[in-house]
Amino acid sequence: MGQDIFATDDTARQVFHDADQVLGYSLSDMCFNGPEGDLTKTIHTQPAIVTTSLAYYQATANTLRERPDWQPAFTAGHSLGEYTALAVAGALDFQEAIWLVGERGRLMQEAGEKSGGGMGAVLGLDAISVEEVCQETGMEIANINSDDQIVISGPKDAMARALDMAKARGARKVIPLRVGGAFHSSLMESAVEGMKHAMKKVTLRQPTIPVIGNCTGKPLTKVEDIEAELLQQLCESVQWSQSVRYMAGQGVQTFLEIGPGRVLSGLVRRIESEAQTVNVGEAKALEKLAS
Fold it and tell me: How far apart are the C-alpha atoms of 128 and 50, rounded to whole Å?
């Protein structure tokens, strides 16, 4: 993960070096060489994704420095990606963002091990119907990714019942997700107090670019709003569909996804069919972006 940008861009390489220093172990070596079993643990996955995303952002910013038409109107990130969005917007120092995400990953892994919950995706069923399924089974809506892609979260035994019920009520497909816990649900409550303490050790600033909050789908412009958001999103659902619609409603036509994967680009196009998406998740994408 991220080895190509590490090899080709000095500023991206520095992001990985900084991450190794603030985390106290060689995250870069784990990203490049594994073992996969360690990298897929929540405590490592979260800082690995944010570090890699920030590294690609640094390389992207260098590429687009002379392109005023590419200056962002908003930043937004899905779940964990909100920390990258905050760092890009100047609300968090890059090193402090990585450290804070390391703490978030540790706390969420501990909460997941304690609660034993899980998550599942429901495709082809509207939010009202999914909410009814959740109310009947004890699950919670974790992510509203698009009108017909919703993720639920909660106890594993309840999840099996909920997915079966969603399928019976017309869901096109249901998918149990391989994750380390019932993220964005009340089963993460035990992580909140630890995050409060961790956040006292970093400096949050007013963002220079409006950041769209996960929980509201609207801009976070004040430090106190950001503080509340980062605690709230541990246990509440990600309103990604609402976030994208807000930005589109403000005149955004092009969405630039930076970091591993292309999932968000696909979701944006499903939410706003006229939107243009650009993905930078590998070094060679920068060549196309620069042309």
Answer: 32
Q: In the CATH scheme, what is the homologous superfamily, with its name and number, of domain 117-177?
A: Malonyl-CoA ACP transacylase, ACP-binding (3.30.70.250)
- Residue 279 three-state SS: strand
**pTM of this structure:** 0.95
Q: How far apart are CA 95 and CA 219, in angstroms?
A: 23
| Helix, strand, coil percentages in the chain from 3-state DSSP, rounded to 5 | 55, 15, 30
Q: Are 120 and 163 in contact (CB under 8 A)?
A: yes
Q: Is 22 in contact with 103 (CB distance < 8 Å)? A: no
Residue 79 known to be catalytic:
yes
What Rg, from alpha-carbon coordinates, does the chain have? 19
The 10s digit of each residue's pLDDT in 76-133 is 999 999 999 999 999 999 999 999 999 999 999 999 999 989 999 999 999 999 999 9
Cβ atoms of 225 and 197 closer than 8 Å: no
Catalytic residue among 28, 146, 153, 184: 184
List the catalytic residue out of 28, 53, 79, 237: 79
For residue 54, count other CB atoms closer than 10 A to its CB: 27
Give CATH for domain 3-113+185-290: 3.40.366.10
For residue 173 the two structure tokens come to: 């497909």
* φ/ψ (deg, to 5) at 28: -60, -45
Q: What residues does CATH 3.40.366.10 cover in the chain? A: 3-113+185-290
* E strands, 201-241, in order: 211-212, 219-220
CA dihedral 215, 221, 222, 226 (to 10 degrees): 30
